[in-house]
Design a protein that fits this description.
Keywords: Exonuclease, Hydrolase, Nuclease. 47% of the residues lie in helices and 13% in strands. A hairpin with a 5-residue loop joins strand 2 and strand 3.
C-alpha cells in the first residue's frame, strides 16, 4: 500500500440554476427540477442529470497517513459553499500526492469535480496535471485509467470491462461489510432541504468506509497486504470507529454482517458481543 491514501466520495444535487441557463428555461424553482428530469428522459431515457449539472453538497474522505493513522473528514454545505468545499478538497493535493481511491470515481466523482471546479474558476494542477507541469505525471497521474495514482475500485475489479461493473452496496454486503445499512432510496436532497447535515455526512462517510474496506481486501487479493497486515487494518478501523459516535450504527451493522461470511466472521472477537 503506497501511503498516504485518500479514499473519497461526493454527494450531489441537481444544479437548478445552471440547468435553467443551459436549457433556456424560465420557470419557478419548484417546477425546474421536474422540467430538467423530463428533458433528460427525452435525451437519454433516464433521469440522471448531466455531470456538469451535479452541484456538490458534500465531499467526504478517509485519510491514511504514512504511519497508518486514520482521519475521517467531511466538507459539506452545512458550513461551506460548493466553491469552498472544492477549494478545501483540492488543496489536499497541493500538499500531498496521495494514492486516491474511489468507487466509480473515474466516471462520476472526478469528472464532476472537474466540471464544478471549472464552473467556479478554480485551478487544480496537482489533481489534473498530466505531465504538462510535472513531467513525472505523464507516466503516473490521477486521470489515466491504468495508472494507480487513482484507483477506481469499481473499474479495476471489473477488469476494466463495463459489463462487469458492480454496485458498491452489493460488493460491500457480499464481502461482509455494512453497505448502505438498509437505506432505501436516495435521501441526499431531503437531508439538504431539511438541513440534516449529520445524516448527510454520515451517509457519505459510510460509502467512504465501505470503499476502504473493499480496498484493503483488494490489496490482500493482489498480495500487497499479507493476511496479518490485513487483519491489523481491519482491527485499526474498528478501533477508530469505536471513537466516532456518528458511526455507531455502521459499526453495529458491520458486526452483524461480518457473521454472514466465513472470512469476516472473526473480525469481531466474542468479547465484544
Amino acid at each position: 500500500m503506497r501511503l498516504p491514501v485518500l479514499i473519497f466520495d461526493i454527494e450531489t444535487l441537481t444544479d437548478l440554476k445552471s440547468g435553467a441557463h443551459l436549457y433556456g428555461l424560465d420557470l419557478p424553482e419548484a417546477d425546474l427540477e421536474q422540467a430538467l428530469m423530463k428533458l433528460r428522459r427525452q435525451e437519454t431515457g433516464m433521469d440522471f442529470p448531466r455531470l456538469p449539472l451535479h452541484e456538490i453538497v458534500c465531499i467526504s474522505g478517509l485519510w491514511i497517513d504514512e504511519l497508518g493513522a486514520m482521519k475521517l473528514f467531511s466538507f459539506s454545505r452545512e458550513q461551506f459553499s460548493e466553491a469552498e468545499i472544492l477549494r478545501k478538497f483540492l488543496s489536499i493535493f497541493d500538499k500531498k500526492n496521495p494514492t486516491l481511491v474511489s468507487w466509480n470515481g473515474s466516471q462520476f466523482d472526478i469528472p464532476v469535480i472537474l466540471y464544478r471546479a471549472m464552473y467556479h474558476g478554480l485551478s487544480a494542477p496537482s489533481l489534473f496535471d498530466q505531465g504538462e507541469i510535472d513531467s513525472q505525471k505523464r507516466y503516473n497521474n490521477y486521470q489515466n485509467r491504468y495508472h494507480h495514482r487513482h484507483i477506481d475500485l469499481m473499474d479495476v475489479m471489473a477488469m476494466f470491462n463495463g459489463r462487469n461493473f458492480q454496485k458498491l452496496d452489493d460488493m460491500a454486503h457480499l464481502l461482509g461489510f455494512p453497505g448502505k445499512r438498509g437505506e432505501s432510496g436516495y435521501h441526499v436532497p431531503e437531508y439538504v432541504k431539511t438541513q440534516q447535515w449529520l445524516k448527510l455526512t454520515s451517509y457519505c462517510e459510510g460509502d467512504v468506509l465501505n470503499t476502504w474496506l473493499i480496498y484493503i481486501r483488494w490489496l490482500l487479493l493482489k498480495g500487497q497486504l499479507n493476511t496479518e497486515d490485513h487483519r491489523l487494518c481491519i482491527q485499526s478501523t474498528i478501533q477508530y470507529l469505536q471513537l466516532q459516535p456518528q458511526h455507531a450504527e455502521f459499526l453495529n451493522v458491520w458486526h452483524e454482517t461480518a457473521q454472514k461470511t466465513e472470512f469476516t466472521s472473526f473480525d469481531f472477537p466474542p468479547s465484544q458481543d
